[in-house]
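sorry to bug you again but im stuck and you know this stuff better than me. what follows is a protein written twice so to speak, once as letters and once as structure tokens for the fold. mainly i need to know what kind of three dimensional shape the backbone takes. anything you notice is useful, everything is just below:
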Amino acid sequence: KLIYAHFFLATIGVLLYITSMWVSGIGQGLMLRAFDEFGNLKYTFVETVVFMHYPLAARAIGGMFFVAGMLIMAYNVYKTIALARENVADKQAVAATA
């Protein structure tokens, strides 16, 4: 069950991260290419950074999802190794009494 949580958290996190970076990159690039009728930049750099606020917030949320998925994966690996050691110890105990 933990693997499903890991998979979906990591997948949603990566999708949020990638799409938000794509949106903010394309948007900032288009804003910095826009000129007014006098040949000056239509938007200041600060305006492009303000535009990127929501995509960067989505990127942070996606990163948190991904990190949560990785923590669940690490816990799952730890529990799998611990369970395998318990099974080996149980088999050795049964073999010793037989």
